[in-house]
Amino acid sequence: MQFQKILLIEAVKKNIDLNNNLNWKHELLEKAPPVLWFGDTRTNLPKIITIGANPSREEFLNHHKKNAQKMINNREQKLLQYLKKPRFRTLSQTESLFDILINVNLQEEIIESYNSYFSNNPYINWFGKPNGFKLEAFLNGLNASYYPDKIQYGFNAIHIDLFPFPTISDYKEISGLAEKDLFNNEWSQNFLRNLMTTFIPSPKLIVVFGKTNFIKLKKLFPDSISTQKGRTHYHQNAKGEQISCTYWIGTFDSYKLVGLSVNLGNPRNFTTKDLNNLGTHILKEFNYLIE
């Protein structure tokens, strides 16, 4: 756990630095620590890493975006209501990000909340339920699951993001800020690489959800990522219309990589079966054999 604590401290220091930036002050939550990963890294199963943009406000807040933005703009940050059943270890009214830097017990509690996320209170509206829809349905087709304690698959999926800071706005609305303060100085690139190589040293596959995220990852790691020409997978929706999904396969350093054009958090015109089939199709293409 020592390396994980080091990474947590690094992220918290950056979080504090961003808090002092007026452009970020209206986006960051005082009581939300950085979210380094989602899922149980302690299992012995081989790992698949999934990558999104950044953690959602929905992981911490009991507010819609506009309401939360209004409260923060009115300097009412302390009045924000956090989830009654937390998904992650949220800071108390007497705790601050600075406490994480010096409190080993608090560090361990936060890391434990990452590992127990899918056993606790996951954001199923995005990740999906066990044997369910959305990201989980696609992963099941890959012989993987975010829920290794409930369903036995060949791979355990761990989710990470391009940067680990929960924001009030959606990524597309703050992409300029991220570019200026996290990507141009390569903070996110260095952090992501350390995150993957420190405690998940040999993922069997890296999956990037959404064309925008995939393009961004390639731009962040231009010398590390190599991809083949996009391929198209088809299925029919309930109306008999042909629906297509583009995917790209390649490598990220020595890791196998796949990028998907479809946003699996909101997979329009896809059923659970369609997502399972897409995962199975890609699995066969990579020719994985689980003994």
Short descriptors:
291 residues, alpha/beta, eight-stranded mixed β-sheet, 12 helices, 16% strand
Summary, kept brief:
The protein is 40% helix and 16% strand.
Q: What's the count of strands? A: 8
> What characterizes the major β-sheet?
8 strands, mixed
Number of domains: 1
Distance between the termini: 30 Å
Residue share in helices? Answer: 25-40%
The SS-based structural class is: alpha/beta
Tell me the β content: 15-25%
Structural shape: globular
Rounded to an integer, what's the Rg over CA atoms? 19 Å
In the predicted model, the low-confidence regions spanning at least 5 consecutive residues are none
* Count of alpha and pi helical runs: 12
Q: Oligomer, anyone?
A: single chain
